[in-house]
Amino acid sequence: MTQNTEELFTRYKTYLKLERSFSANTRDAYQRDLEKLVLYAEENHQDVRKLTYEDLQHFIAGLHDQKIQARSVARIISGIKSFYRFLLLDGYIESDPSELVEVPKIGLKLPDVLSVQEIDRILSTIDVSTTEGQRNRAMLEVLYSCGLRVSELVSLRISDIYPKEEFIRVEGKGSKQRLVPISQTALREIKNYVYLRGFMTPKKGAEDILFLNRRGAPLTRVMVFLIIKQQTELAGIHKKVSPHTFRHSFATHLLEGGANLRAIQEMLGHEKITTTEIYTHIDREFLRKEILEHHPRYNRKK
């Protein structure tokens, strides 16, 4: 990558942060995808700013040849479109070569959801006699009770918790804050963990961070994934479970219980209601199963 391209990338990341309010994780993902296009341009001895519509089509065809999944191709194309929009707005180019590039249609992929019983099984595998175990119990209760993203979970601060009001303050995407109700169960597990946490010495700058590793530093996103994977295996659950699975389960169980979709949107921190509407598809399947099982015209159990 040339020095000019690196400078352009730096300005683009600033644009994503300040003007698009993208999170650090999203900015990094956009840059990784864009590096594929820069590599293509360099291999063809071209400046990424001078690529044509035909060049982009050739690049995208190469992605398909590499057997990259449609969902990943769609994400890469979205990143490319964002990049050329930035170049156009800042006067680096006079026309946008990505304007007519089509994003492949992706079939709706419903996320895995855990039942309440499966969540209880996972939680029951945790040994709460240790500080790490109590931390993990509190952490998973917060994930399920509040429907947080993993990035929101690891950055949660003690000062963000309001036990009397039964709310927590969450900083979501684009540094947007929201208040989310928290259950008494999760608050009780947090209280138990905070007591044990008091015997630890947090690293400088992590004094207010709620969930710490054994060295007193904030937990990483990867560590949360590994903890959940381990507890899921111990519980004998053969699903692909991640922190996001707890978030999906939180929203699904709310909808099945009759919660308003707008309220779920607010609690999840979704900017658009269309993002939350994926759960209506899950709910319809739930309703279908309920009818098949309980309605006399459908009940085939004789």
Concise synopsis of the structure shown:
This protein has about 300 residues and is mainly α. About 55% of the residues lie in helices and about 5% in strands.
Total number of helical segments? 13
Strand content: under 5%
Strand order of the largest sheet: 1-2-3
Q: Regions with pLDDT < 50 over 5+ consecutive residues?
A: none
| Mean pLDDT over the full residue set | 85
Distance from N terminus to C terminus (CA atoms, Å) equals 70 Å
Largest sheet: 3 strands, antiparallel
Gross geometry: globular
**SSE string, helices as H and strands as E:** HHHHHHHEEEHHHHHH
**Helix amount, in percent?**
55-70%
Computed structural class: mainly alpha
Number of strands: 3
Radius of gyration: 23 Å
